[in-house]
Amino acid sequence: MKWLQIHITVDQAQVEITESLLLSLGAVSVTLDDAEDQALLEPLPGETPLWNKVIVTGIYQQDDSETIDVNALISFLNMQLPAHTTIRHDILEDQVWERTWMDYYEPIQIADHFWIVPEWLTPPDPQAVNLKLDPGLAFGTGNHASTFLCLQWLGKTDLKGKTVIDYGCGSGILGVAALLLGAEKVYATDIDPQAVLATRQNAELNNVSDGLFVDLPENFNQQFEAQQADVLVANILAGPLMALAPEFSRLTKPHAAFALAGVIEEQLQDVCDAYAPLFEVTEVEKREQHWCRISGKRLG
Question: Which InterPro entries does the entry mention (predicted)?
């Protein structure tokens, strides 16, 4: 069996209708790719980042006994889409194409005895703390600089027997890491229901579900009412981080350890100023030139 790929380059505003059109014409899968090598900042939880120009690719099953009339298909697409839309096609030989993205992921070493390992790969160091992850579930794989900075901080922080908050949990990578590194309990939250599901699944994958509570913010607030955490980690963006400073102070014990990421260098001073009345910043770490992690402790 072979697979026909139809690649359509469109503006961001046309992505949804193009995707729907390909699916309505029988595509078994639709993927989105950057058409212009445009860098994207890490999104807020629940956001889906898109490039200004996007390649929308539909994949069609091409049976030997019943082949698709490619020219007719492209002609029809041209009639439905704006003039001068770029459409091209190619043929894939038989393969498990829906999982070929696996080839792009490798284990990531965070510290001497701490690795992030895609679930289908063998850990390079079986004796280390190996966090198994399905990178396809939700945002947060350890590849992004801000995620790596938070994992690095967790790896050097004493978490034994501690209660940890993972605020804006995404894939759950930070909360799961905290449990594997010795935390007694992790309370995680995200505004995206898919992130909540992904966090639960990754906790199950790593056999730490018993130590995890994860839910949407309203349920998190009810569950965590009248408690305070020993450690808080939040990998979101500068604006939400600044707005959440009073809430993070309420959620943590005096002298609790904290780490914030998702901040670029130009925003660093503003974030530090927002936290100064409530938290002592003791360390700023940078990675990949402009991504920053701010860490320290809550004031007593």
Answer: Ribosomal_L11_MeTrfase_PrmA, Ribosomal_PrmA_MeTrfase, SAM-dependent_MTases_sf
